[in-house]
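Progress report, Aim 2. The chain analyzed during this reporting quarter is listed below.
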Amino acid sequence: MELNRQLTHARRSTAAIITGTLMLALTASTAMAQSANSDVKVGFTPKFLKDDFQTLMLDLSKKAFAAKGFTLIGAPDPNGDIAAQVNALSDMLANGANVLVFAPIDAAGIVPAVKKANEAKALVFSIDDSPVGGQVTATVRADNVDAGVQGAKEMVKRLQGKGCWAQNNCIVLELQGALTTPNGRDRSEGFSKTLKELGPKVTLIQRPTEWTADMAADAAQNVLTQNPSLNGIFMASELMASAINAQLNAAGKNAPVDDPNSVIRIAIDGTPQGLQLIRGKALDATVSQPLSAYATKTAELIDLVFHGGKVELGPRDDGQVIQTPVGPQYQLKATLVTSANVDSPDLWANKLAK
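Predicted structure tokens for the chain:
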């Protein structure tokens, strides 16, 4: 018995030593990796810091870079001024940045900064949109075509519960973003094409808004006047939602979500305001942008390429990588939000209070 106890104790001691050794090795390996990554010197600029989206993007990016052990050269706020953004990126390059990350204020205006970084052999990562010139190491943005597709599928699903579906006389208004922007074109393409495929007898009315609530409100007012039996409205951005609800209220068509007489309202972005509208039954659904993943994916790709890896093209579990004239583009899947998952902690808008 004594011999068995001694053998058992010896085995446990050996196991503890091995486990401790492995933990020390893992800790040392992580520390070495972070130490090596301190050579990664990042200069970052958002578009501005006057909205929740850009502010959270900056905060999450800083955390993702720190987790990888990167050195942050700076993260100045250009306050919506493209000249200030270009100058800030140039200054950070001069101060030793070997990686530039930015959310471009203007796709054409940012090109001089991209080309200067290319000449300096610095890595270039663009978030949420891509420049129209120079070469980027990668652009990380939402799959906006798929966001539009998700919006159309949800619109059709909800239209099928309306009387107009059986009568083949449903009418839907699409309030487009600026069609001069990739996000505007992609969201409209995804929505309109899918709606026509899934609901070929649905009448689709399209109106441009240039991303402005005022233009959206005017368009909605005119369409409601001409089509009082309007059944659904798709908004390329939630920034239009409150103005659209005001127009519906003025037209006596402000029935809450799930009411048989309600006008279906679906949008894109997933802002705190949009989620609150869903909770208040003033918005049926929205498609939330993958903001949290913007930061972690960008940090992951910086780590990959800085150490000799390559951004490979093709499908991914979280999206897809396509080739564009300025370089590879990692398109992340967005998330459909309804009353069923509006309080999910994974949604970027629900991270703001944390």
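The chain has eleven helices and 14 strands. The mean pLDDT is 90. These observations will guide the mutagenesis work planned for the next reporting period.
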